Amino acid sequence: NAGVTQTPKFQVLKTGQSMTLQCAQDMNHEYMSWYRQDPGMGLRLIHYSVGAGITDQGEVPNGYNVSRSTTEDFPLRLLSAAPSQTSVYFCASTQGVGYTFGSGTRLTVV
Amino acid sequence: GQSLEQPSEVTAVEGAIVQINCTYQTSGFYGLSWYQQHDGGAPTFLSYNALDGLEETGRFSSFLSRSDSYGYLLLQELQMKDSASYFCAVKETTDSWGKFQFGAGTQVVVTP
User: Fold this and answer.
1) Residue B88's Cα: distance from chain center in Å?
2) Which of B35, B100, B104 sits opposite A40 (nearest CB)?
3) Using one digit for the tens of pLDDT, what is the confidence trace for B1-53?
4) B43 touches A: beta carbon within 8 Å
5) Is B56 helix (H, G, I), strand (E, B) or coil?
6) Closest Cα to residue B31, out of B8, B55, B60?
7) Would you say A78 and A21 are in contact if contact means Cβ atoms under 8 Å apart?
8) Most buried residue among A60, A66, B52, B74 by CB atoms closer than 10 A?
9) Which residues 6+ apart lie within 8 Å of A37 measured at CB?
10) Tens-level pLDDT at each residue, chain A (110 residues)
11) Residue B29, SS3?
């Protein structure tokens, strides 16, 4: 049972480049979320989804897009990378109560 | 404004008891979760309290007082492997388990 799988684990981007962070879960969870983690700031919610075809913004959505075409997949797109988006990104899923997190993507924007 | 307050760091010796407090001020409140995160790792779920009182799971217990907007995580019989960051998180809406607000985390350092 893989749980939540995130790819890539590490990425370096140049300012202005775009990319997609992949997230897939095999637990048939209804809810999926993307968080970013910066030193001393905990986890901040970027976007979340309550089911296939339904997404909503979190606390820090600017510069990011998401889609949820299937229950399993919830990709996060960076439209035009900026140094302020340097962070560790976690995808998480839940069917209620507790999240299962992916192993994270460490993104550096130069 | 919305906020969750936790101490930034707590240090204790092996075998001791540590209590990590979390006070919250959020737009809505439907429950309080706790997560553990080791350096370089992903957060892992520890507990969830929706009602007032104490929930015990092995060496870890979690408490909630909704009237005081306060909760705590109690770590007993501390072990070296308990050295990690601990985050409280509030479920703000009744209709979505996908939307939690996290505190900044408490670094627990366990010494021999």
Assistant:
1) 4
2) B104
3) 578 999 999 999 999 999 999 999 988 899 999 999 999 999 999 999 999 99
4) yes
5) strand
6) B55
7) yes
8) A66
9) A43, A44, A87, A88, A89, A90, A104
10) 679 999 999 999 999 999 999 999 999 999 999 999 998 788 999 999 999 999 999 999 999 999 999 999 999 999 999 999 999 999 999 988 899 999 999 999 99
11) coil
CB contact under 8 A, A45 and B48: no
The token pair that represents B57 in the structure block: 């799971």
* E runs forming strands in B28-105: 31-37, 44-49, 53-57, 60-65, 70-75, 84-91, 100-102
CB contact set of A99 (below 8 Å; sequence gap of 6+): A33, A92, A93, B33, B35, B43, B45, B100
Judged on CB neighbours under 10 Å (0-12, 13-18, 19+), A8 is: exposed
- Beta-carbon separation of B87 and A43 below 8 A: yes
Whether residue A8 is preceded by a cis peptide bond, meaning omega within 30 degrees of 0, is yes
CA-to-CA distance for B26 and A66, rounded, in angstroms?
A: 25
Q: Which amino acid is at A70?
A: T
- Strands B18-25 and B3-5 turn out to be antiparallel
Task: Assess contact for A35 and A99: CB atoms under 8 A.
Answer: no
**CB-CB: which of B97, B102, B104 is closest to A96?**
B97
User: Are A101 and A4 within 8 A, CB to CB?
Assistant: yes
Amino acid in the structure at residue A93:
S
